[in-house]
Each structure stands twice: as C-alpha cells, then as structure tokens.
Amino acid sequence: MPDRPEVTAVEIARLAGVGRAAVSNWRRRHPDFPQPVGGTDASPTFALTEVESWLQGQGKIAELPALERAWRQLETLRDPAGHPAAPLVPAGAFLLLLHREPEAWSAFATEPDTRLATALPRALAQAAARTFGIEGATRLGLPSLLGSTYLDLVRLLAVLAGPAAGPAAHAPAGPAAAFERLLTRHAEANTRQLSPTPPEAAGLLAAVAGPVLAAPGAAALDPAAGLGAVLLALPPAVARYGQDLDPVAAALALLRLALHTRAAEPGPLPLDLRAGDSLRADAHPGLAVDAVLCQPPYNERDWGHDELQYDSRWPAGQLPPRGESELAWVLHCLAHTRPGGLTALLLPPTVASRRAGRRVRAELLRSGALRAVIALPAGAAPPYGVPLHLWVLRRPAPGDDFRQVLLLDAAPPQGAGEGGRDRVDWPELRATVTATWQAFDEAAVTGRPVPADRPGAHRVMAAIDLLDDETDLSPARHVPPAAPAGDAPALAHLRGRLTELLAGIAEQDAALPEAGPARQPGHPPAVVTVGELIRSGALEVLSSGPGAPGRPAGHGAEGVPLLTDQDLITGNPPAAVTDPGAPDAPVLTRSGDVLVPALGGGVARVVLPGGPLDGVALGRQLHLLRPDPALIDAEFLAGQLRSTALTRRAASHASTTARLDIRRVELPRLPPERQRVLGAAFARIAAFDTALHRAAALGRTLAQGLTDGLADGTLELPAGE
User: Fold this and answer.
1) Of 27, 163, 287, 458, whose CB is crowded by the most CB atoms within 10 A?
2) Which secondary-structure segment (H or E) carries 364?
C-alpha cells in the first residue's frame, strides 16, 4: 500500500470542480504539473500533497477540503487484502473520544508524536470501555498501536470535527457529523459491497413501532443491523441491541450509535451490538424486546436450513424451506419479541406469494401473529427497483384471539409516475402508513370496529379468508381497485378541458422556434464549467443540507412550503411545509433562480416572480443555481441544463444511482444578448413540453375513467352503438 495519499485524474477533477478533460489538458499544458507516482499508464495516480500544492499555486482551489484530506489518509491505511472499511474503526474511536471526552484530546494534542503514539491508544481504549463496557470495547478490535500515519489521520479528524469544518466549510460540525461524512464517502466508493437501509425507510420502521417503544425501559433489536440505520432512528431512551454478520460493520454501527448519543450520558450506554450470524449463532439468546425492526438479507440459499431443522424458533415445526430465507428471518425476529411486542421487516414482494412459503405464511395467520402487509413504492429501500413490502407482526400474548389482517397498498398506481430512489414522497408515505396501521392496531387492542375498507388503498380481511391453496398476502391481489375517475358529467368536463388544452398546444406549436442546421457544424463554441462560474462570482449554487451554503443558522420558518425533488420533476406545487423546530433556517427560492434535481433527468425550472416556486423552501436532493443576471440569463441556463448530452457528460456514477455533478456541467461561452435570445426560445419549448405533459395526464385519466365506467356498468354507450 502507498505510504502517502494518492489520487487519480478523476479524483483531481472532483477536487477542483472540473471535468476529467480539464485535468488531461493541465497535464499537457503545464510542465510543472505533478508527475505520476503510481497506478498504470492508463490510470496513473499522483501524490495528493503535490496535487494540492499545484492546485493552490494555480488558484484553482483555496484549500483541499478537510473531508477529502482525511479520506485520502484513510485510503493509505487500507490493507488491499483486508476489509475496505477497517480503517474507519480507529477513526470512529478517535471521534468518539472527541465526542465523549474532548478534554482528553486537548490535554495532549500538542504533544510530540513519540508521546502521542503511546498516550492516544490508551485514551481510546479507556474511552471505549467507559462508553460500552470492557466487553463491548473489546469487540471493537481497536489496534494496539497507532503509527505515524494514524497520528496524521487523527489530527485531520480533529480538524474535520471542529468548528472550522462547520459553517466555514458549509457542513455540519462535530464528531458525529464528521463520522457520518466519512461513512457516506465510504458508501459512495463501495456501492457494490454496501446497500444500507436509507434513513427514511429506517424512520418508517421506527414510526410503526413508535407506540410500543414509548414506554419507559423499552428495548429494540435489529438482528441484521448493517451500519445501524434502523437503530439510529429509534428514540434515544430506547435500549438498543443488534447483530451483523460483518464484524467491521458491527463495530462501525456501534461507534455510530454512540456518537449520536448525548456526550453527558453517564456510564456505559444501553447499546449492545455484536458480530455473528444471527440465524446460526444468535448473539442474544433468550432476549425478548418490545420491538424487532429489520431489513434482512434477501435470497440467501445458505442460511442454515440443514443445521437448524429442529430449532425452537419454527412454530409448530414449520421449518422454512431452503429457498425461503426471508421467512426464517421473520420467525427469528418474532422469537425475540416479547408477548404483545411488535416486529416489522422490509421484505421482497415475492415473500408474500411464493408457493414454497405457503405453509409458514398460513401458520403466521392461524396464530394471529401476522397483523399487516403493506406494499411500498419502488425506491423506498434497496434494491431500489423493487417495490418492497413491510410486514408487521405481534407476538400473541395470553388471551389474544385476533384473526384479522390489514392489507395496505401504499404504492402509486401503475402509470401514476416513475418510482425510483429519491423519488418517493416520504412525508406522504409515512403519514399514510402510520395513520392506517395505528388506527387498525388501536381498534384491535380496544375491541372497536376496524377502519372501513378504502378501495385502491387498504382492506381488512379475516385471516381465514386468506387461507387457501396459495395463501397469497400481496395487497394488490386483495385491495379492491379505486373507484372510476367520475360519473358521466365529470368525464364530459374532463373531455372539454382536454379539448382546450389541445387547442392551446396547437398555438404553442406554431410559436416554437424555426431551428435550422448550424452555420458552422463541427465547430462548437468555447465552454466554461459551472465550477469555474462559481469561482468567478457569476453564479452561486445553494443546497438544502444542514449548514449548507446559503443556509443561515437559526430556526426554520413555520408554514413555508417545502419543495421536494418529486414536486420539481412532476411540476406539482409544494405540498409539505418546513419544520419550525429545525436547527437551521431553510434556503428560500427567489425570482431568477434555476432549480435542478440532484439526479438530473433533464429537468430544470426557472423561478418566476409570484409563481408557485417563488419563496418556497428548498428540499433535499435539489440544486439551486442563482446566476448574476448581468452575466447569465436564467432561461438560457435552464435550457442548457435540460440538454441530454450536457447532463450525460456531467453525470456522476459514484453511487447506485447516476447523479448530476453540477460543478462539472459545461456551458457555452456566449455574450448576454445571445443568451437572452436562446433563453426566450428555451422558455417557449419548456412551456410547450409542460402543456404536452398536462394534456397526456388528463388524457390518461379520461381514458381510464371511460374504460372503468363501461367495464363496471356505471356508464353505458348511447343507443345504437
């Protein structure tokens, strides 16, 4: 492994906010550009310190971000034959020391390396023992010695976690925030090895279990904890237990949870997260908690079927078939739930219908344990292309005789919109799921009537009605379809509105620019990147994260509409509002801003004076570009950002979903007067496209309403047809 941090040309481009072609150009044009120190001829690597010095000397960066410096130092510590995340464990242990005992670091931070190399490991071990207990600290597997490279790392981490890494670097400050940034950076660099549960999905599991975890002394378990996202979403007072097959992931999750616990918490924290195979070697035998929340691994063939044939976790001797590993996890979680406690799991939709698992599903229904199956939209959690199910179970208590099941279809209707990661309306989904489940659950506990069925949304069925040759629990199979779009007068109104829209589209079509072939094909204009425009002051880019650029400190504004990326993509007005208790004030849009989803997709909208996007709060996964109107025309900028070729060139594939690297976007260098001419043309094209989408949506609604009405007999054809 290298003894100093190295970077590739792609990583240099990322540091400088330019495209990879610019780095290749620098290597050709500047003889003083650093020479390769490793890699291959096709993909050379360069010394980070030399690159940083050269970029600063050229005025291309003021200073290398602390996160990037710390990440490069971590990369030098990684053993190519070992676990890629192993260096994050001592890094997290040091950040825990800063969080729990900041005075311990300040006492010898200025000591020479020889003394620090001896004192720091002892301080880390003592802090871990006081936080987790001696046994828990031992499971972290901290290195006994810290070499000089680790000392360089911890000094960088102290900077990353300090105030200088907060507002000045447009990022939240503190040890917990620093560790989250390192974990995110690791996940981006190892997308094939990691598929963590997103915080929104973890929050949904925690919300479903909220009532049972509100009691004093409540405890929860996640037997497939991963990096601890589900346990992190629980209320702080809940005792948390967990297990994961990957010992490094278990150590990182333990550190992560401790970093998000109040520093003043006395004594060992109520955290017990261990490594091991939960099905074959349960680390918490006999433990019964109030809630077990989990997104288990899927499609495992070697889960222990042969070794666990007579295990006590299988009810009535119903051993899950070899191909039904997910049902083995369901029964494992249920076995760790106290009587009356709740179990919630995210599972693939096939678990509800595969014939091999019919007997186990039937036993869950007969026992009264299975209470709800909830269909979620695609994109809620990995794998993002699959619409997962949320199963909710309760371990029957003595005297329980509950034989009804809630089937809730929270996925959007087919054709209602594209699903995908970061395109789930989480506030709406969470409100729908929790309100429906809690109303159903309270009715079951109190003996009141269960909620009435709602076509297209949910249905309550007797368990005996689901027990047939298939025992298919898929909500889509049992929830009745939604009512037709309307009666005959309503459909006649829709037809009239569609006729008006089509007439308007014809007028807009006549106003589209008459574009001809370029006068100089093959001679594209000079370009400038968004990153270069930012540095020159011609353009400002704002984001919505805590402490992000343009996000002032203070309290959120109550009642301000909150724009989501889904709102921007669909063209709908913002529906949610900002949280008045948020620690940071939101970024508010203003006339002339250009809004772009972080995922790109050819969508870019200009904020018009008094329009629905004017004065709203910027939600997650959105870029706000604020151009200097004397230098950049907003409509011209938006039109360029809608270009397919431009956004493809600026796409970043550092995660499982392609994202728009906004700083790499290249714009043609044109005088402002030419920009305004093109901007006006882009605006007319955008208005035409919006009208087409509205007409298409209205046309689909009309067609579906006519189809449904004729099919179910609520409409009939005129006499003679």
Assistant:
1) 458
2) helix 358-366
Q: What pTM was estimated for this model as a whole?
A: 0.68
The Cα 533–Cα 527 span in angstroms is 11
Q: Is the pLDDT of residue 402 over 50?
A: yes
Q: How far apart are CA 225 and CA 246, in angstroms?
A: 10
Q: Could you tell me if 557 and 617 are in contact, meaning their C-beta atoms sit under 8 angstroms apart?
A: yes
Compute the half-sphere exposure of residue 115: CA atoms within 13 Å on the CB side of its CA. Answer: 7
C-alpha separations of 215 from 210, 297, 414 in Å? 10, 30, 40
Tokens coding 107:
């006492």
Tokens at 144, concatenated: 């006994």
The CA distance from 275 to 244, in Å, is 5
Task: With beta carbons less than 8 A apart as the criterion, state whether 664 and 529 touch.
Answer: yes
216, 221, 222, 225: CA torsion to nearest 10: 80
- Angle ∠(443,400,372) on CA atoms, nearest 5: 55
User: pLDDT (tens digit, 9 = 90+) per residue, 201-231?
Assistant: 999 999 999 999 999 999 999 999 999 999 9
Cα(273)–Cα(247) distance, integer angstroms: 10
Provide φ and ψ at 328, rounded to 5°. -65, -40
* C-alpha span between 279 and 304 (Å, rounded): 7
Nearest CA-CA partner of 169 in 548, 532, 542: 548
Task: Please state, in angstroms and as integers, the Cα–Cα distance from residue 183 to each residue in 92, 194, 477, following that order.
Answer: 10, 11, 40
Output the six-digit token pair for 714: 């609520």
Residue 123 has pLDDT above 70, yes or no: yes
Q: Which amino acid is at 53?
A: S
Dihedral of CA atoms 89, 90, 92, 95 in degrees, nearest 10, equals 180
Give the integer Cα–Cα distance in Å for 372 and 364: 11
End-to-end distance of the chain based on CA atoms, in angstroms? 80
- Closest by CA to 344, choosing from 196, 197, 208, is 208
- Within 8 A by CB and 6+ apart from 412, the residues are 377, 419
Q: List Cβ neighbours of 549 (8 Å cut-off, separation of 6 or more).
A: 170, 540, 541, 542, 543
195, two tokens? 């598929």
> Cα separation of 167 and 260, whole Å?
20
Q: Average pLDDT, stretch 301-319?
A: 87
